[in-house]
Design goal:
Layout: E1 2-10, H1 13-23, E2 27-29, E3 38-43, E4 46-53, E5 66-74, H2 77-89, E6 95-99, E7 108-116, E8 119-125
Parallel strand pairs: 1-4, 5-8
Antiparallel strand pairs: 1-5, 2-3, 3-4, 6-7, 7-8
């Protein structure tokens, strides 16, 4: 497992993008066609900062703007499956989603765990394990 990215939700994504590109040295890159606007900023060929345009109103319990979450990447399907088994064995709830495919990358699976109010951890993989929806 490796740290994958940090997501920042802001009402000023262009200002934040300019800082990371012009000052920090990241570069703009391809981003899947999500239903919300934003940017993916790259370092060494990998998208490490995801910027999301803040919605008009934040979901309950989630401030905006915010650093939204950190994400960890699993490269192997068996590691992903082991994660699911550990979560299920401990009764830890999670939500799954999918990153839409784009010309730059195939679709990926996401899993989100809310550890505490305002603390979200994402796990992501391009591997193709069978993800069972929780009851």
């Amino acid at each position: 497992m490796q740290l994958d990215h940090a997501t920042i939700v802001t009402a000023e994504p262009e200002t934040v993008r300019r800082f990371f590109v012009d000052i920090a040295g990241l570069s703009d890159g391809a981003r899947p066609p999500f239903s919300v606007d934003g940017y993916w900023l790259y370092a060494n060929g990998r998208p490490v900062v995801h910027l999301i345009d803040a919605p008009a109103s934040a979901p309950a319990g989630r401030a905006s703007p915010r650093i939204d979450h950190i994400a960890f990447r699993f490269e192997r399907a068996d590691d992903w499956q082991a994660l699911l088994e550990r979560l299920d064995a401990r009764g830890i709830g999670y939500q799954t989603a999918q990153v839409p495919a784009s010309a730059a990358q195939p679709a990926e699976r996401q899993l989100f765990v809310a550890l505490a109010p305002g603390v979200v951890i994402e796990f992501v993989t391009a591997a193709q394990p069978a993800v069972q929806p929780q009851p």
